[in-house]
Model the fold of this input.
Amino acid sequence: MGWTRDVLLNFIKADAYHAQALPKHHNFKTTLPEQLQQQADDMLKNTYNLGFLGVMQPIKELELEKRIVEKIKFFLLELGAGFAFIGNQYRVLFNDREYFVDLLLYNRKIQALVAIDLKIGSFKPDFIGKMNYYLGILDDQVRMSGENPSIGIVLCAEKDHVDVEMALRDVNKPIGVADYSLQFPKDELKALIRKEIQENLKDDND
Done:
């Protein structure tokens, strides 16, 4: 994936290989062209480690989003290769109403928009309906000619695979559901923060 040695070591320490091997929950096989199904599956993880956010107590969804945007470099690394950040609270209009996508990204490998809906609680089936609606608007109004169908990721604190599979069963837009962990090795977190501070100081001096 073009990672540097340091990035690779961080993923080894976080046991990213085994995390990637866990079963994933999505409907990509029924909603995406065959040539994109495996790429989309590779893009999605079962669980994302958001420990780099430094969250030590319950927070609201907007605060979680704010912290992710502040640490967007680390978040993109956790998502995997090929992601580019477009915006947060991305505004779209439909039928004289405005809606806001929590995080809007673009994946260069799949050549598709990726919308992320952040949830601090457990998975609920109505999350899928909301994401399906957003993806329809993005495909109609934001997706450019030649780009593949937009993909949604519902990122919640925990999920039950039976509920997820039922919620996704008859949905016609490509959606994946993943959970996240806020645990992160303290020594590794300190090293990441120290490295970021040093890079910021270097940029300021330049």
